[in-house]
Amino acid sequence: MPTLSAVLAELLPLTHTLPLSLLLLNKEPFAPESKDEDLHSGVLQLPQGTVLLVTEGGIQEGKLVDRGVLNVRALQEVMAKIGVETEKRLSAQQEAQ
Fold first, then answer.
1. In this structure, what are the phi and psi dihedrals at residue 34, rounded to the nearest 5 degrees?
2. For a Cys staple, 64 with which of 13, 36, 37, 68, CB 3.0–4.6 Å?
3. CA nearest neighbour of 73 among 42, 40, 39, 34
């Protein structure tokens, strides 16, 4: 049986699966960051219209370091922004009917 990630990849033009783990949260930057006057992309820096599937199967007990906390905040901000945009779009559709 295909995974949800595989099905979405077949149906949608842009998808990205983010398998959360303590190691990923603590190691990789999720938001763009500046290093030595160079801008480096983050895991959440995706093209407009990309469907992001976040999986939490790899999460285990452990400690989030500073980067991990920043990454969780970045993920929360992305989810909040998507929620607000979706609500606006649905409201506009309802008003048009």
1. -100, 130
2. 68
3. 42
Q: Where are the beta strands (DSSP E) in 14-71?
A: 15-21, 33-35, 38-40, 51-58
Return the residue matching tokens 């033009």.
13
Tell me 50's DSSP state.
P
Confidence of residue 66 (pLDDT cuts 50, 70, 90): very high
- Residue closest to 12 by CA, chosen among 53, 62, 57, 41: 53
Residue 70: HSE in the Cβ half-sphere, 13 Å Cα cutoff: 14
Q: Which of 29, 27, 19, 23 is nearest to 61 (CA)?
A: 23
Q: Contact, 67 vs 29, CB < 8 A?
A: yes
Between 84 and 95, the more confident residue is 95
Length reported for the chain: 97
